[in-house]
From TrEMBL:
UniProt key word Hydrolase: yes
GO BP annotations, alphabetical order: proteolysis
Pfam family, any one: Peptidase_C2
Keywords: Hydrolase, Protease, Thiol protease
Record's protein name: Calpain catalytic domain-containing protein
Xref: InterPro entries: Calpain_cysteine_protease (IPR022684), Papain-like_cys_pep_sf (IPR038765), Pept_cys_AS (IPR000169), Peptidase_C2_calpain_cat (IPR001300)
Residues forming the catalytic site: 77
Length: 211
């Protein structure tokens, strides 16, 4: 991190990630033949270029909230659903953001993948739609905040392509971003219905939220 910031100060230019370039090779499995859902016009812009309001762009402005998350043109609602859940426990979400270096053009995140915490360094260039004038994929409701598209980009880099986030399981996303264990309950199952009726299910949910 110190090396990147020193490079930025010496060159007077924000850092660019050579491992995950700002082009179609980072978006699609086959850049020559993008998937049908791919947007024909994709630009890459930094938060400083996207947000034109008062003050600088931020990772987060007034803390995290489930209402911060807005889906874009990528089918990664499973991952964004995990973001929503984690936002109910801000400390867990803060743990995901290892270093905020937006002013230098990079950020560092960590994910629990293959049984261990893995650190992912990205530059802050994110896919941008010139027609809507906002991030092409996931974004924050507050245009000054950028934690959603930046975490999404880091997760895409971890999986090599944005396209590979197009469809997935929320439980897997929860494990990757929290390091915890995912449990699934069938609300129509007799044992779950009994837990709902006697209140033990909601007590369990509340106990998880306090952890």
């Amino acid at each position: 991190m110190q090396q990147i910031e020193e490079m930025v100060q010496d060159s007077q230019q924000m850092w660019c990630d050579p491992e995950f370039p700002a082009d179609d090779s980072s978006l699609y499995l086959n850049p020559v033949q993008p998937p049908e859902w791919a947007s024909p016009n994709v630009e890459w812009k930094r938060p400083q270029e996207i947000f034109q309001g008062e003050g600088p762009p931020m990772m987060m402005k007034d803390g995290f909230s489930p209402g911060d998350v807005k889906q874009g043109e990528l089918g990664d609602c499973w991952l964004l659903g995990a973001f929503l859940c984690l936002a109910t426990n801000p400390d867990l979400l803060k743990n995901l953001i290892y270093h905020d270096g937006i002013e230098y053009g990079y950020s560092v995140f960590r994910f629990f993948k293959n049984g261990e915490w893995q650190f992912v360094v990205i530059d802050t260039r994110i896919p941008y739609s010139p027609s809507t004038k906002e991030p092409l994929y996931a974004r924050c409701v507050d245009p000054q905040e950028f934690w959603v598209p930046l975490i999404e980009k880091a997760y895409a880099k971890l999986h090599k392509k944005y396209e590979l986030l197009n469809g997935g399981k929320m439980g897997e996303g929860m494990v990757d971003i929290s390091g915890g264990v995912s449990e699934k309950y069938n609300l129509k199952a007799p044992e779950t219905k009994e837990m709902l009726e006697n209140g033990t299910f909601w007590k369990m949910i509340k106990s998880y939220l306090k952890q």
